[in-house]
C-alpha cells in the first residue's frame, strides 16, 4: 500500500499506456485496419488520469531507465462515488476521436467507488454497476494490458514530419538575415521575390545588400550574385537525408562544418545543377552522437554552410566571401545540446525535437542512448559516393 491521504486509498501499479482496449471498444481503433496512434493514446490516458478527482500521483518513476512508470492512488475523503465527468454538450458542434476516447476513460474511472477498509488489512475496491467493466485490483493487470510506447526519436525519419530549419545569411561576414522555417516541400533560397512560384520549396528571399552594407562596390557584387540565383538554391529532406540543387547559374559550394568555419577547411562538394545532390546523412550523425554521449568522441557536425557565387574560402577567412548561408536543422542541434549539457553519464534533461507534432521529451542518459541505438537499426548506410 502506498499510503493514506484524507481517507481510504489504494495504489494503481505501473501504468504504461500503449494500445488500450478502450480504443478498440470505442471503434477508434480496429486491429488490422487502423494504424496504431501510440503517442495520442498515451497522452489521452494521462490527461484523463490527471483530470480525475479522487486520483493523485503517488510516485513518479518515469525516469527509471529500466522500468519507467508512474504510480497513482485513489483518494477520497469519504466512501462514495467519485465525481462524474462533465457531460455538458460540446459547444463546438461535435467532438473529435481523441475527445471521445478521453470521455470513455473518464467514465471508466468515474464508475469506481472506494469501500471502507478494515484496519488492519489490505485495501479493497468495489466497482459500481457497469456500463463499462472496470478493472479489479485482484487481477494481475489493474488496467488494460498496455504496450510500451514507440521510440520518439523515430519521428525524425517519418516522411510526414516537417523538420525545422534555421537559415542565416552573411554578406562579407556580416549577418544580414535569419529566419526559422518549417515546410513539407523544403526551402529555396532566392534573390528576388519575383520568381517562378511553380518550383518546389518555400522561397526565402535574401535581403538587398543596401539595407546593411555601405560599400557601394561590395553592394554591386552582392546584387550580381543574388540575381544569378535564378530559380534559387533548393534544399529538401527525404527520409534520413538532405538534398540540394541549384536552379540558377550561380555556382554554390557546401560543407558540413562547425558553427564557425576554420581557415583551411575545404568544401565537401559543389551543389549540382542538373540533379539533386546529397549534402547530409542522418545515419553517420547519429552514430557519432552515440559515441559523443559515451564520452569518447567529438560533437557531431550538423551545420550546413553554402558559399554562393564564389569559390570556397579554403585559403582565406570565410568572412571575405560575398554571400555565405548557414542552414541548421534545429532538431539535430537539440539532440547535440541535450547530450552536451547532460554529459556522458548524467544525461537527464528535456529535449524538443522541433519537428511537427513533436512534444518535449524527458529522457535519462540510458533511455537516450537506447533510443539512439534503436534509431540506427532503422537506417540504411550508403558507401562513399553513393546517392
UniProtKB/TrEMBL annotation:
Gene3D superfamilies: 2.60.200.10, Winged helix-like DNA-binding domain superfamily/Winged helix DNA-binding domain (1.10.10.10)
Domain IRF tryptophan pentad repeat: 1-76
Single GO BP term: immune system process
One Gene Ontology term, aspect cellular component: nucleus
InterPro entries: Interferon_reg_fact_DNA-bd_dom (IPR001346), Interferon_reg_factor-3 (IPR019471), SMAD-like_dom_sf (IPR017855), SMAD_FHA_dom_sf (IPR008984), WH-like_DNA-bd_sf (IPR036388), WH_DNA-bd_sf (IPR036390)
One Pfam family hit: IRF-3
Spans annotated as Disordered: 77-101, 113-149
GO molecular function, one term: DNA-binding transcription factor activity, RNA polymerase II-specific
Regions of compositional bias (Polar residues) in chain numbering: 84-101
Record's protein name: Interferon regulatory factor 3
Source organism of the structure: Cercocebus atys (Sooty mangabey)
Amino acid at each position: 500500500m502506498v499510503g493514506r491521504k484524507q481517507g481510504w486509498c489504494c495504489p494503481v501499479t505501473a501504468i504504461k499506456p500503449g494500445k488500450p482496449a478502450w480504443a478498440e471498444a470505442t471503434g477508434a481503433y480496429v486491429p488490422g485496419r487502423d494504424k496504431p496512434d501510440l503517442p495520442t493514446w498515451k497522452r489521452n490516458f494521462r490527461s484523463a488520469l490527471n483530470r480525475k478527482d479522487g486520483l493523485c500521483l503517488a510516485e513518479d518513476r518515469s525516469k527509471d531507465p529500466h522500468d519507467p512508470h508512474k504510480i497513482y492512488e485513489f483518494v477520497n475523503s469519504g466512501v462514495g462515488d467519485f465525481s462524474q465527468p462533465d457531460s455538458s454538450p460540446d459547444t463546438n458542434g461535435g467532438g473529435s476521436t481523441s475527445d471521445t476516447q478521453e470521455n470513455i476513460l473518464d467514465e471508466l474511472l468515474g464508475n469506481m467507488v472506494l469501500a471502507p477498509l478494515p484496519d488492519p488489512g489490505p485495501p479493497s475496491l468495489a466497482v459500481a454497476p457497469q456500463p463499462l467493466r472496470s478493472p479489479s485490483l485482484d487481477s494481475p493487470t489493474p488496467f488494460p494490458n498496455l504496450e510500451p510506447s514507440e521510440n520518439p526519436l523515430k519521428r525524425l525519419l517519418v516522411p510526414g514530419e516537417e523538420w525545422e530549419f534555421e537559415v542565416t545569411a552573411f554578406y562579407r561576414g556580416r549577418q544580414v538575415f535569419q529566419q526559422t522555417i518549417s515546410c513539407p516541400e523544403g526551402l529555396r533560397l532566392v534573390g528576388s521575390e519575383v520568381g517562378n512560384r511553380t518550383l518546389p520549396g518555400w522561397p526565402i528571399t535574401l535581403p538587398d545588400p543596401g539595407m546593411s552594407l555601405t560599400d557601394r562596390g561590395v553592394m554591386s557584387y552582392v546584387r550580381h550574385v543574388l540575381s544569378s540565383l535564378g530559380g534559387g538554391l533548393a534544399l529538401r529532406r527525404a527520409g534520413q537525408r538532405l538534398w540540394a540543387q541549384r536552379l540558377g547559374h550561380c555556382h554554390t559550394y557546401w560543407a558540413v562544418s562547425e558553427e564557425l568555419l576554420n581557415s583551411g577547411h575545404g568544401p565537401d562538394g559543389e551543389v549540382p545543377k542538373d540533379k539533386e545532390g546529397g549534402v547530409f546523412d542522418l545515419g553517420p550523425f547519429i552514430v557519432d552522437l552515440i559515441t559523443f554521449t559515451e564520452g569518447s568522441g567529438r560533437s557531431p557536425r550538423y551545420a550546413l554552410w553554402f558559399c554562393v557565387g564564389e569559390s570556397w574560402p579554403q585559403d582565406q577567412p570565410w568572412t571575405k566571401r560575398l554571400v555565405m548561408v548557414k542552414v541548421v536543422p534545429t532538431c539535430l542541434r537539440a539532440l547535440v545540446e541535450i547530450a552536451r549539457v547532460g554529459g556522458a553519464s548524467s544525461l537527464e534533461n528535456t529535449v524538443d525535437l522541433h519537428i511537427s507534432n513533436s512534444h518535449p521529451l524527458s529522457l535519462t542518459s540510458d533511455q537516450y542512448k537506447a533510443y539512439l541505438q534503436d534509431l540506427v537499426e532503422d537506417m540504411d548506410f550508403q558507401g562513399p559516393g553513393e546517392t
